[in-house]
Each structure stands twice: as structure tokens, then as C-alpha cells.
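User: Predict the structure for this protein chain, please.
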Amino acid sequence: MADVALMGLDIGTSSTKTVVISPDGVLLGMAAQEYAVETPHPGWAEQNPETWLSAALDTMRRALAVANIPAEQVQAVGLSGQMHGTVCLDARGLPLRPAIIWADQRSAAQVADVYARVGREQLAAWTANPLATGFMLATWLWLREHELDVAIATAHLLLPKDYVRYRLTGEIGTEPSDASSTSLFDTANRCWSTALLDALGLDARVLPPVAASAAIAGGLLPEIAAATGLRPGTPVIYGGSDQAMQAVGHGVVAPGVLSSTIGTGGQLFAPVARPVYDPQARLHCFCHVMPDMWHLEAAMLAAGLSLKWLRDSVLSGLTYQEIADAAATVVPGAEGLFFLPYLAGERTPHMDPRARGSFVGLTLRHGRAHIARAVMEGVVFAMRQGLALMLDLGVTPERIIASGGAAQHPLWLKVQADMFNRPLYQTRTLEASAVGAALLAGVGTGIYADVADAVGQAVRYSETVITPDPDNAAHYVTLAGTFAALYPALAPTYHALWK
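Assistant: Here is the predicted structure, written as C-alpha cells:
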């Protein structure tokens, strides 16, 4: 199929990336456009939906130009996008206000109110998920309380990638992998939770219809085709959440394989063959993009973001490479220095927007290299807690795939292998979420028989395997117990600081 190509878009938090690939996974073209998160008030996080659309059109046009292929070769377009966020459209399909995205923390009171009214265990039973600030349910309730005019005028609530796809095709809809991230979705049955909506007095009519992730949503509108260089009517696939799409791009589509992603946030992603949830609501259970697969997800908010904070605010003038190189000169455990990476609150396992970052154990002996190592280890300690919860729910990972920006430095990889005490693998996939979206577009248009076939044809693994050091692994087991005790000890102080 030398004359066939697929396009995938990833509508991210910091940028939109578009790729053009061949069916065997060869990257033909790629383009990216960065943008900012707006913070009109402390703790708020917003983006203009038109910013996403503009970035999508620009990167689609440039990626096609880099690929240097006729528009007719692009058989389909798929989408991936940041999860949880909320776009409010009026009856004409126009945004009523900036989108409130996943990093927003304004809805803490609404989260507490839902737990008080519904109960943590009942919410988990209905949705298989905890509720956090920035999720569509919490944001919707905040809008009803604080921007009633917007809430009344809202005819459609859309997730970020679903808004972009609506503008590409004119068709409103969503799919299970992203819808299950709203805390409004019956994850087990792949539909909106009528029980939850009724309990909270919410109107289901503003929620979009749900289609299969690999289904064709519509064709590119003529004006979109003109702006991108693609042919009018090119099929556009519903797509999936960025985490589900990066999993496809890395081949994490069946039980036994787990991905560990350290990007801005951090995620552990484990496919499961049936919906299973943590009754204490510390983990997420979302739909995968395959109709008979779900996934457990442990999510932390400030993974790579913690290292970015260290670079920008503490060790200014040093590059990420220099910081990680310095950290590598320090022994595992940073000589008793711990870092709690709760710079933006935390999700798994604490689900606490009031948590704060902390260094514990500082002495005169510690220098910048120790601080750097403590930050990197603190991120992985936090992710290790999520892995422990997954193991308790029956996940048995035979292979862990490392991804995200952290995969670019050997120390990040080594710390994960040692702390998880499992071999770490990597794929050769670049921009996995966008590639996953392109592969799903191929599934939806019959180029591949199914997702497993797409992965088999297009995903390649690196020959290098990072194996755990037994001594380091044993040392980290002891240190992990100390790390786990720090949050409960410090939580009363964190909460007092918010008063």
C-alpha cells in the first residue's frame, strides 16, 4: 500500500501535533504548534477552543507538506486529545467561554459536594472512577453555580478533541475512551450514567451521542479541506483520549502490557479485559478504544512538570540533560532526601487538590545534584504507589513500556526499572498519541483488520531493555515505605495552608 497514508492529530495541553504515516508505521511528515494555558485566576486553567482549531489546521497543512504526497493518498484522519476538559457550545455551535481544562482546580467544592451527596463508593460503582477538579462533571457543576448564564445557554458539552472534530466535520459526538474521563459515564456499559445524572439533577440532553472510537464521524468539510490541503470528504475517525491513543501507538492494547508515561503529568496505563475499579476511588478505570477492552490508569499531575519547575525556578541556567546528569552522580535514595511531587495537588493515590510539594530530609550535605535526584525519584515513588494499587486489583504486567519526555534520559529509565523492579522496554514510535490516532483511522477505514493488526504492522520495539538492579530494587522497597508515610503525616499541614 505504497500509495496509502494516514493522518493523526493530538490536541495536547501545550501543543497540537500532527503526523502522516504509512500503514507500516513509517513517519512521512510531522508538524507541531505550541500554545499556552491561560490562568485568569490562581488555580484556574483555560484554553480558547479556537486555538486548538487553528493549531490543528496549521499542523495538518504543514505535516502534509513535509510528507510531500498527494492529498488523495491520505485515506483518513484520526484524533487524540487531552482528557477531562469542558467546551460549552451554544445552540449555534459556538463556544460560550474559554474551555476549562483538566489542570483546573476551581471546582474543589463541587467535588466535595458530589462525594457528600452521592458517596465515594456509589460514584465508583456508577462510573468506575473517582471525581477530580478539572473533570467535566465538576466543571459543569461549577458553571451552574458561578456562571449560570453560560450553563443555561449551553446546548452541547464537548471534550477538547471532540470540539476540533466537530469543526472538521460539522458532526457532534464523542466516543467511550474520552467520555469515560468525564465522571459522567457508565464505563462498564459504555454509555452516559443515567443514575448519576438523575441523582444530581443534570440534563443529559447537553451530552453528545456516543459512537465507537474507530467509527467514521464524517468527512472533512470543504473549507477545512481548503485550509489543510486535504481532499474534501476525507473520512475523520472519532478517535480517542490521549492516553488510549498513546497506548495504541506503543502497542499497549492487551492485558500483560503496561505503559509508564512521564510527560507533563505521569500515567501508568494497564489494559484489562473487563471493567474493574478501586472501591476507594484512587485509580481510574476508563474505556480503551477497542470495544471489548478497558484500562486502569494511575495519574499524577506534576511528573515532568516537577523537573520543569526545578529547571525554571531553582536550577535556572541548566538544561534538563545537565540536571539529570548531575542527579546520576548521586546514589539511589539521594542520601535520605525525599521530594513529594504535589506541586499541583495530586490524584493517584491521594485524590487531594490541596496537597503541596515538599522536600523532606534536607541537610547541609545535600546540594543541587541531590535535589535533582530527589525530584526525579519522587516522581517515580509516586507512580510506584499507583502500580501497587494496580497489582492489588489483579494487573500482572509482563512488560512495561516507557514513554514520554522522560524516556530521553537513561536515569529516568533506570529509576523506573529499579523502582518497579521490572524490565523496561521502549518502542521506536515518535509522537505516540498522534500515531495511535492515525492507526485507529486505518482501523476505521479498513486498512487494518483491527487494532491488534495495526499494532502488529506499525509498532516496532527498541532492542535495548533496561533491567532492574537487584540491590537498587531492594533499597527502593525500603525507601518506598518511608515515602508512603510522608503524605499522611504532612496532609494536615497542607490542608491548613489552604484555609
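The radius of gyration is 22 Å.
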